[in-house]
Amino acid sequence: MNNLLVLPMLLPIVVGVLLIFLRTYGRVQAWISIASMLVTSGISVYLLHKVQTDGIFRLDFGGWEPPFGILFVADSFSVLLVLTSSIVTAICLSYALISTSKELQTMYFYPSVLFLIAGVNGSFLTGDLFNLFVCFEVMLLSSYVLLTLGNSKRQLREAIKYVSINIVSSWFFLVALAFLYGAVGTLNMAHVAERVAEVGQTPLLTTISIVFLIVFSLKAGLLLYFWLPGSYSSPPIVTSALFGALLTKVGIYALFRTFSLIFYHQPETTHLLIGIMAALTLIGGSLGAIAFNDIRTIAAYNVVIAVGFILVGLAISTPASIEGSIYYLIHDMVAKALLFLLVGTMITLSGTSKMAGMSGLMKNYPLLGWSFFVTMLSLAGIPPLSGFIGKVLISGAAIDSGSYVLLALALLSSIFVLYSLLRVFKNCFWGETIVSKEEQPPLRKGVLWPCLALVLLTIGIGLGTEGMAPYVTDAAETLLNPGIYIDAVLGLIQ
Amino acid sequence: MESLIIILVGVLTTVAIYLVLSKNIVRVILGTAILSHAVHLLILSMGGLKLGAVPLLGEEAETYVDALPQALILTAIVISFAVTAFILVLAYRAHQELGTDNLSAMRGSDDE
């Protein structure tokens, strides 16, 4: 039955190929892709349940047992992320169905999104480092296409930067893989972890781990985020929402996986470095979030702050902090998609992305205004919304381990998040209503439904933390005890 | 043999980095293409180079090379081929729209 494990990657690919033949039918494509994402969510719920009852399980492709073949491994951490990304994508796709132009919809938008999701889900599930590289590339190629769809001058310009930086980072990834293969002679994650534990993490291996750190930081936007605000604020808003919700999270996942499973023996070097990078990311992101007047750029810098915050949890690496990071990772996928969709709706309504051009939207669109308000509170970490539990756990762990600098920066960054969004809220929703309701372009019917679904999701995660707790605790336990993962993958052979 | 190849990798990387750092977009793309060749050679030499040996043909073979790096390179070549094709088209479109192939001139302002 564990053949099901391949479906979160296979289903989007098959459906995506199918949709290419339905190019001219925009709405049909949208419905089929939403349905396939819902099926994927259903499968991941089942997988999550199975991991909880039977423990970690794997799928060896072609019957080649590890460490010889490529395999997919399901543990609570990866399946939780697959589940969240599938749900968020389904909601973003329904926003695309309602809001985007027909032109975009018929230009392979939906197939590209599905290929993107295939890459994302594959990266979460794979148990092989080279396969991780391949899944990254699947995801990146689709993201290049999505970034350039629409063909505006700004998009082309940003796409050139984005593509070149990613080619260079993929190159670093290959270099790191080559050296790792030369050093330990295997690329199966569990097998690498076992061998690194056997020989001890020599300085050579630590150096290789730092090359991996550079690669994944580039993808996650950890310190090396200079490409991020430009490329996340140029494409159509649905694309930005998907990028903000998913792409950086894959980098974060890879960082958690490699630095908790494989390279955890020298925390005084690697984890200290991650801590310093997270601190600088928090500072840079916070400054960026309050420095700009363009609301899309503000939203993009909020993505950067969240990356820094989640990585604080990895830098501390105690059970509580890892749990906090996982909660916050899941929260952030939902909340960032929501933030971008709301910002996009605001831009459509007022025809500008500058704060100066918007005022008093609250009078005509109260529902939009209050959704934004809830998002803001959720991102700032106000209970009972979803951001709260992650912030509490990470802060608590920071106090326990005495990392007061990280604690101070993490909490200060929350205030900066609140301030940057409050500024948007005050300027755009309050104040004098510049245009009357008749003059304002009408909100397309149903455009707020996807946003409301995400609002409910962020409230639901906040209130239902208790229900998620067993899964998240299990995920954190697996991350902190690499032996469980290694046993599950290599156990049958030795 | 390995040392020789590693020196070659170094030379290729140097050339590639020189090209990537230039301002002309076509030279940047050529640079990334050479960059990928450099890393493919690196992966190959990491598997150990043996003169005259082939990947494993049967269980009785006396000498054989590690087949895994070859499989990895094959995959990496296909990917870098696709990405290079994409960025070439992207550069062509950007040249049509923006009327320049100079990266400094492409910066533009945020107001467009």
From TrEMBL, chain A:
Subcellular location(s) of the protein: Cell membrane; Membrane
InterPro entries: CPA3_Na-H_Antiporter_D (IPR050586), NADH_UbQ_OxRdtase (IPR003918), ND/Mrp_TM (IPR001750)
Domain NADH:quinone oxidoreductase/Mrp antiporter transmembrane residue range list: 127-415
Keyword Transmembrane helix assigned: yes
Pfam families: Proton_antipo_M
Principal subcellular localisation of the protein: membrane
Transmembrane residue ranges: 6-23, 30-48, 68-95, 107-124, 130-150, 162-184, 204-228, 240-264, 270-292, 299-320, 367-389, 401-425, 446-464
UniProt entry keywords in alphabetical sequence: Antiport, Cell membrane, Membrane, Transmembrane, Transmembrane helix, Transport
Keyword Flavoprotein: no
Topology class, membrane: Multi-pass membrane protein
Similarity section: Belongs to the CPA3 antiporters (TC 2.A.63) subunit D family.
NCBIfam families the record matches: PRK07691.1 (NF005818), PRK12663.1 (NF009306)
Protein name in UniProt: Na+/H+ antiporter subunit D
UniProtKB/TrEMBL annotation, chain B:
Record field: transmembrane: 6-21, 28-51, 71-92
Keywords attached to this entry: Cell membrane, Membrane, Transmembrane, Transmembrane helix
Family assignment from sequence similarity: Belongs to the CPA3 antiporters (TC 2.A.63) subunit C family.
Primary residence: membrane
Name listed for the protein in its UniProt record: Na(+)/H(+) antiporter subunit C
Compartments reported by the entry: Cell membrane
PANTHER family: ANTIPORTER SUBUNIT MNHC2-RELATED
Annotated Gene3D superfamilies: 1.10.287.3510
NCBIfam families hit by this protein: PRK08600.1, PRK12660.1
